[in-house]
Write a structure and sequence with these properties.
Blueprint: E1 2-12, E2 18-21, E3 24-25, E4 28-29, E5 33-37, E6 42-46, E7 57-60, E8 66-69, E9 72-73, E10 76-77, E11 81-85, E12 90-94, E13 105-108, E14 114-117, E15 130-134, E16 139-142, E17 154-157, E18 163-166, E19 169-176, E20 181-182, E21 186-192, E22 196-199, E23 205-208, E24 221-225, E25 230-234, E26 245-248, E27 254-257, E28 269-273, E29 278-282, E30 293-296, E31 302-305, E32 317-321, E33 326-330, E34 334-342
Parallel strand pairs: 1-34
Antiparallel strand pairs: 1-2, 2-5, 3-4, 5-6, 7-8, 8-11, 9-10, 11-12, 13-14, 14-15, 15-16, 17-18, 18-19, 19-20, 19-21, 22-23, 23-24, 24-25, 26-27, 27-28, 28-29, 30-31, 31-32, 32-33
Length: about 350
């Protein structure tokens, strides 16, 4: 990347290119965005966003456009939203959410609408409020609130079309778009924040790591079974971590990368095999990184971008090849960034 950044977002387009947006860099809050082309291994500058932001979300819409919601900047928490059009290479202002928020989730529903849940806003350590964005009308509409206020949680679209929201508390809840209602909360084995979640081929959801406050990092993992609505504890990861990523590989295994552990920012990676319920350590990344992004490319390889390296914000990116089990350096971003998005 041309710019080092963290708390950014990265999104995979249908063209196989990856859009990295905003985040926090050495110059402060970022409005810049960049596009990675795997065919050339190059990051290229994209249009600037209307507003700098970090701790936002980036969601690929059915139209191929990318919706960015909320975040925070020098002016405080944000309700504003923007949409990137890859055909025109332009950002356009979208309708604002009803509530400014950070550390929330934004999930594309099968209807093409986007469900936003929880987060933090002015005067509230956590939100139970939810709202839905309709790209066809450019409008936000309220939907029912969660039973539990949550922040730094995860939201996973299930095979049924329902949405599992997990953590940010000691429980999970499931949203049913057909009724606009939340099912009663289900207790998790462990309360957790800043964890990662991945939908398995079986339809179950793997949740890993996180923390429970006071730097109490977790190695524990658990599986949610939609058929029973229950959580089951599985084997622990080798390394306790938070602010890591979890991504489903084409093999059906799940790759865990980086994060923050009890002693340092982590370069270590692990793979979970659902068929054996086993964790295996694999080759570490070339750099320790947390609050970074990982994106599954059309080739089946995984792109890891930027993040916080502990001693500074990173502009580096690297690619994991499941066929060799190795990480290889990729082109650097123009801007170092963390807490960004990658789409």
């Amino acid at each position: 990347m041309a710019t080092a950044r963290h708390v950014h977002a990265a999104t995979l387009f249908s063209s196989s290119k990856v859009l990295a947006t905003a985040g926090y860099g050495y110059t402060g809050y970022l409005a810049s965005s960049e596009i990675y082309d795997p065919s050339t291994d190059q990051w290229n500058p994209a249009a600037r966003m209307a507003r700098a932001r970090t701790a936002h979300t980036g969601t690929l819409l059915q139209s191929g456009k990318v919706l960015v919601t909320g975040g925070v900047a020098s002016t405080g928490y944000m309700a504003s939203c923007e949409i990137y059009d890859p055909l025109k290479g332009q950002w356009n202002t979208a309708a604002s959410m009803a509530i400014p928020r950070i550390s929330h989730t934004a999930t594309l529903l099968n209807s093409g609408q986007v469900l936003v849940t929880g987060g933090i806003t002015f005067g509230a350590p956590a939100l139970n409020n939810s709202e839905i964005y309709d790209p066809s009308t450019d409008k936000w509409n309220p939907t029912s609130s969660m039973a539990t206020a949550r922040t730094s949680h995860t939201a996973t679209l299930l095979k049924s079309g329902k949405v599992l929201v997990a953590g940010g508390a000691a429980s999970s809840e499931v949203y049913d778009p057909s009724t606009g209602q939340w099912n009663p909360p289900t207790s998790m084995a462990t309360p957790r924040y800043y964890h990662a979640a991945a939908l398995l081929r079986s339809g179950k959801v793997l949740v890993t790591g996180g923390d429970v406050g006071s730097a109490n990092y977790l190695a524990s993992s658990e599986l949610y079974d939609p058929s029973t609505g229950q959580w089951d504890t599985i084997r622990n990861m080798a390394t306790a971590r938070k602010l890591h990523t979890a991504i489903l590989l084409r093999s059906g295994k799940v790759l865990i990368t980086g994060g923050v552990g009890s002693s340092d920012f982590l370069a270590s990676c692990e793979i979970y095999d659902p068929s054996t319920d086993q964790w295996n350590n694999i080759t570490s990344m070339t750099a320790g990184r947390a609050a970074h992004t990982t994106t599954l490319l059309n080739s089946g390889k995984v792109l890891a971008t930027a993040g916080d390296g502990g001693t500074g914000i990173l502009d580096s990116s690297e690619i994991y090849d499941p066929s060799t089990g190795k990480w290889n350096p990729a082109a650097s971003l123009a801007t170092a960034r963390t807490y960004h998005t990658a789409t």
